[in-house]
């Protein structure tokens, strides 16, 4: 619980004040907000930001127009905390940060300043004009596709996609597991714009049969490190995957994959490879000798070893060349076919955004309080959300705040609550269109669960995919 106490509002608010002050300062000096947010896209060869000591002020400013006088070795410019005032930073290098306040889950669109960042390696500094994506493998023509070609020669699409890190909620596992201790904040909903991947594959004669895979590789791994690679089944690729270059109507920020990432709508964050530099069309996932060396799991690490549901009793995940069940929940239940589920589409989950953690609230004039939150279900739609004010003993159906805007985006919900003064434990529970609900708790490791059973989410070695509602409860005092 101390994790959450520490992570709610205060730091976010202080950082936001600084951010707003900075924005005002930038406006006064004629710099645009875009320059601050987009940081690394200076039009000329000048990398990242240009630091100018303006006379009469001690504050450095970032502009797109000022001439570069020298190239510094260390990139200057706003710190991670300044750029993302709504985040609680877990590690500055590589950049890992989650939404600091529950309030983030009362807005339909998550502003970039509050959208979590999850990096295994430090974000690379990339010059868009020098970047291209290699298309290799089972294609008629192996080519390098430039960013310009991607943007100008193919159709453009936009989609709302709620993206959650599969490690979100990891800190609530008992006993605790290693890795970043994400609480509730590693999820956000953004509008993403880019080129449908199907258009690029078709243009260059890729084999797009249903049993094929596209292995998507990131350009961020330093020499000698495992390349962030995810194998995505062709049916999903052809359906709706996108090479995204905009987030909420602006170029992708550096930390979110500038200049281009793959978007796998409805699927866990780990599939949404950033800084994409290669797409390999193949008839299986990255697997075996061809993709790893004796010393290193060069391409296989993040697909076959990591991002798997591994109970306590297993040494490591069982590897497969190919699977034909992609739905994560279905994989978790089909343990005779897949011993350790791969983290693909997101499980049904919800979060209360208001009231905040450990807050004191007074009812409105009519004696009611509006409990507001967000619910999502991967590539399924959310059917119902229920709210309990007594820690899950009794439930009340919530209403949706807006019509469904596609199956990949969360829906905000509201429950009008009429409490007496006192202390309460609020929880929310969502159910998807297939009737699957959030389980109550996380199992004990000894139970060796591989799937959701008896209202319990399986404790697993790497702390993935926790969608149990009780660990996400909010304690509030009503005045
Ligand atoms: N190349 C690359 N892509 C990556 C990662 C990474 O470390 N390297 N992290 C992944 C994980 S685990 C998540 S949850 C999402 C996070 O995306 P975001 O930082 O834009 O929120 O990016 C994914 N794509
Ligand atoms: Mo993640």
Major sheet summary line: 5 strands, mixed
How would you describe the oligomerization state of the chains in this entry? single chain
- Beta-strand content estimate: 25-35%
Helicity level: 10-25%
Overall structural domain count: 2
| CATH C-level class of the largest domain | Alpha Beta
Give me the CATH fold name of the largest domain.
Sulfite Oxidase, Chain A, domain 2
What structural class do helix, strand and pairing data support? alpha+beta
Under CATH, the homologous superfamily of the largest domain reads: Oxidoreductase, molybdopterin-binding domain
In DSSP terms (H or I, runs of 4 or more residues), the helix count works out at: 9
Question: Architecture of the largest domain in CATH?
Answer: Alpha-Beta Complex
InterPro entries: Ig_E-set, MoCF_OxRdtse_dimer, Mopterin_OxRdtase_euk, OxRdtase_Mopterin-bd_dom, OxRdtase_Mopterin-bd_sf
Keywords: Metal-binding, Molybdenum, Oxidoreductase
Protein name: Sulfite oxidase
GO molecular function, one term: metal ion binding
Key features?
Immunoglobulin-like, 479 residues, alpha+beta, binds ligand MTE, five-stranded antiparallel beta sheet, Sulfite Oxidase, Chain A, domain 2, disordered N terminus, Ig_E-set, single chain, binds molybdenum atom, molybdenum, 2 domains, five-stranded mixed beta sheet
Describe the structure in your own words.
The chain has helices at residues 2-7, 10-28, 33-38, 80-83, 147-152, 197-203, 234-240, 301-305, 328-333; strands at residues 51-53, 60-62, 87-91, 96-99, 117-118, 132-137, 143-146, 157-164, 187-196, 213-218, 229-233, 242-247, 250-251, 261-263, 276-282, 349-354, 359-361, 369-376, 382-388, 396-397, 399-400, 411-417, 422-432, 441-442, 456-457, 474-478. Helices cover 14% and strands 27% of the residues. It has 2 domains: 128-333, Sulfite Oxidase, Chain A, domain 2 (Alpha-Beta Complex); 349-478, Immunoglobulin-like. The protein has 479 residues and is an alpha+beta fold. Strands 7-6-15-10-11 form a 5-stranded mixed sheet. 49% of the residues are buried. The chain is built from 9 helices and 26 strands. The chain binds ligand MTE and molybdenum atom. The ligand Nc1nc2c(c(=O)[nH]1)N[C@H]1C(S)=C(S)[C@@H](COP(=O)(O)O)O[C@H]1N2 binds at residues 116-120, 165, 218, 220, 228, 256, 269-270, 272-275. Residues 344-441 form the Moybdenum cofactor oxidoreductase dimerisation domain.
């Amino acid at each position: 619980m101390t994790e959450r106490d520490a992570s709610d509002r205060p730091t976010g608010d202080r950082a936001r004040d600084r951010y707003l002050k900075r924005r005002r300062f930038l406006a006064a000096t004629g710099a645009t907000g875009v320059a601050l947010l987009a940081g690394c896209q200076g039009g000329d060869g000048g990398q990242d930001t240009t630091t100018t000591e303006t006379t009469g002020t001690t504050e450095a400013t970032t502009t797109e127009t000022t001439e570069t006088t020298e190239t510094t070795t260390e990139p200057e410019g706003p710190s991670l905390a300044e750029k993302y005032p709504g985040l609680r930073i877990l590690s500055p290098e590589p950049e890992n940060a989650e939404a600091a306040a529950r309030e983030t889950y009362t807005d339909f669109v998550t502003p970039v300043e509050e959208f979590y960042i999850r990096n295994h390696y430090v974000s690379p500094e990339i010059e868009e004009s020098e970047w291209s994506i290699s298309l290799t493998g089972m294609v008629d023509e192996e080519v390098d596709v430039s960013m310009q070609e991607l943007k100008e020669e193919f159709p453009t699409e936009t989609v709302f996609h709620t993206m959650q890190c599969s490690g979100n909620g990891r800190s609530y596992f008992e006993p605790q597991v290693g890795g970043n201790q994400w609480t509730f904040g590693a999820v956000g909903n953004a509008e993403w714009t880019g080129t449908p991947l199907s258009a690029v594959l078709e243009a260059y004669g890729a084999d797009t049969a249903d049993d094929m895979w596209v292995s998507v590789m990131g350009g961020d791994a330093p020499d000698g490190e495992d390349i962030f690679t995810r194998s995505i089944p062709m049916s999903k690729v052809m359906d709706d995957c996108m090479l995204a270059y905009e987030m909420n109507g602006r170029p992708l920020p550096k930390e979110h994959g500038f200049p281009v990432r793959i978007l796998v709508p409805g699927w866990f964050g780990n599939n949404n490879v950033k800084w994409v530099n290669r797409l390999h069309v193949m008839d299986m996932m990255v697997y075996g000798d061809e993709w790893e060396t004796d010393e290193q799991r060069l391409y296989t690490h993040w697909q076959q070893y990591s991002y798997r549901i591994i109970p306590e009793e297993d040494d490591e995940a069982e590897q497969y060349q190919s699977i034909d069940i992609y739905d994560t929940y279905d994989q978790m239940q089909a343990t005779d076919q897949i011993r350790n589920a791969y983290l693909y589409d997101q499980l049904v989950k919800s979060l209360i955004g208001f009231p905040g953690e450990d807050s004191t609230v007074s009812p409105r004039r009519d004696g009611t309080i509006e409990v507001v939150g967000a619910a999502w279900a991967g590539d399924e739609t959310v059917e119902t959300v229920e709210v309990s004010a007594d820690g899950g003993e009794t439930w009340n159906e919530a209403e949706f705040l807006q019509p469904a805007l596609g199956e990949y985006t969360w829906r905000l919900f509201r429950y009008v609550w009429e409490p007496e003064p006192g202390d309460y434990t609020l929880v929310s529970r969502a159910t998807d269109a297939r009737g699957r609900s959030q389980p109550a708790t996380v199992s004990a490791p000894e139970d060796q669960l591989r799937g959701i059973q008896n209202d319990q989410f399986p404790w697993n070695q790497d702390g993935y995919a926790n969608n149990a509602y009780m660990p996400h409860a909010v304690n509030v005092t009503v005045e």
